[in-house]
TrEMBL record:
Membrane topology: Peripheral membrane protein
Domain Conserved oligomeric Golgi complex subunit 3 N-terminal: 92-235
Protein species of origin: Geodia barretti
Protein's recorded name: Conserved oligomeric Golgi complex subunit 3
Subcellular location(s) per record: Golgi apparatus membrane
């Protein structure tokens, strides 16, 4: 492709390279005059002002052309103007595209700025999320630690209550108004057992041995109060029904209230205490010893009350049946069965479990009958009479009375 300068250079040498003849010059002048008078094309504006302006402009420009070089420059200028007119829409479009490009660049910059801002926000969000997660974890750990501490405090408090009970128990036992018949005595006894059991299981606690000793001292004091109450009640009841000195009481149907009524009236309060003592007798030696002492005191008071009366009653029966040994044995055994049955029933008004002391009491009463009947039996020489006595003892006593009544 030739550049504009090269074209102009070639055109400047056109006259010398392609010289025209006279005839050709005349033809050129004719063509020039014809071209100057050529009508305006139909697609161009036909207004007189526009045509005049264009014609005037062309005429003025052509008039100023003197050489071929100027003509070539003018042609180049015209071509440039034509090209400029033709490319105007494209240049405008390019300008518009440039504006769009600038706007797109600005939008891209704004988008990049927004992305940077979003990235910063994402980083901050992650940071906040991490801090929030760490805070949540710390709070959760604090809650767990708090729960552990609360549980530990409750555990310590629950264990400490056993030790703080010492002063309260000591105060109540030392109160003059407090006795074994008070409503709070049995709960106090149960609390003492719990404290002793807890202290024995945790001897590794500080000063636990000291507290255990004190608790056992208080238990001994409480059980001593029980023993004192039971013994004094039994003695008072016995003294209220004992015959006066020199008088002899005989057991009969009319004397039942004297020997059993008052004891039964005082039995409920004692049995309530004895029931608690019996429940604990297998777990602690102190309760077992107390139960033994109470049973021994009861048996002693009953023996003191019954021994002389049983002797007197058997002596009266012996006197009534002195001539009939079989009637004597029958009446004596029947009397002793009633006494033993009444004593057995009365015993369970005070206690809930059997004891060797009760067996000893009944045996001592029965030995009284043995002492009465033995001299009579050993002096009987008739075999038939001895057989009758054996029949009475075996059939009437052992099979009928003892087996049926469960004595």
């Amino acid at each position: 492709m030739f550049t504009t300068a090269a074209v102009r250079e070639r055109l400047s040498r056109w006259d010398t390279l392609a010289a025209l003849s006279d005839r050709q010059k005349e033809c050129f002048l004719e063509l020039s005059s014809t071209a100057a008078n050529r009508p305006v094309p139909e697609h161009l504006p036909t207004e007189d002002g526009v045509v005049a302006d264009v014609s005037g402009s062309l005429s003025s420009q052509l008039d100023s052309i003197q050489t071929s070089q100027q003509f070539m420059a003018w042609c180049a200028e015209v071509e440039a103007q034509a090209e400029s007119e033709q490319d105007k829409c494209y240049r405008e479009y390019i300008s518009q595209l440039s504006q769009y490009r600038c706007q797109c660049g600005e939008m891209l910059e704004e988008a990049e700025s927004a992305l940077v801002t979003l990235a910063n926000m994402r980083e901050r969000h992650q940071f906040v999320s991490q801090r929030t997660g760490a805070l949540h974890g710390a709070c959760q750990q604090l809650m767990e630690d708090q729960t552990k501490l609360v549980n530990l405090a409750e555990s310590i408090s629950s264990k400490l209550t056993y030790f703080t009970e010492l002063d309260r128990i000591g105060t109540r036992l030392g109160s003059p108004a407090f006795s074994v018949t008070s409503d709070g005595f049995l709960p106090l006894l149960s609390r003492l057992d719990e404290c002793i059991s807890f202290t024995e299981q945790n001897l590794h606690y500080k000063e636990s041995q000291v507290y255990l000793t004190r608790f056992r001292q208080y238990l001994s004091r409480a059980l001593a109060l029980v023993k004192q109450h039971v013994v004094s009640t039994l003695r008072l009841t016995t003294s209220s029904v004992l015959p006066k000195p020199g008088a002899v009481a005989v057991l009969s149907e009319n004397s039942y209230a004297q020997f059993y009524g008052k004891f039964r009236s005082s039995a409920p309060k004692i049995k309530a205490l004895m029931k608690e003592i019996e429940l604990r007798a297998d777990t602690a030696a102190e309760y077992k010893n107390l139960l033994h002492d109470c049973c021994h005191s009861y048996v002693g008071q009953r023996g003191l009350l019954l021994t002389s009366s049983v002797h007197s009653s058997l002596a009266q029966i012996t006197q009534q049946h002195s001539t009939d040994s079989t009637a004597l044995v029958r009446a004596g055994c029947d009397f002793m069965c009633r006494v033993c049955q009444d004593e057995y029933q009365l015993y369970f008004h005070f206690f809930s479990v059997d004891s060797p002391e009760l067996k000893g009491l009944l045996e001592s009463l029965c030995y009284t009958l043995y002492d009465v009947l033995r001299p009579v039996v050993i002096h009987i020489n008739h075999l038939e009479t001895l057989a009758d006595l054996c029949s009475i003892l075996k059939v009437e006593m052992l099979e009928e009375i003892v087996s049926q009544k469960g004595i």
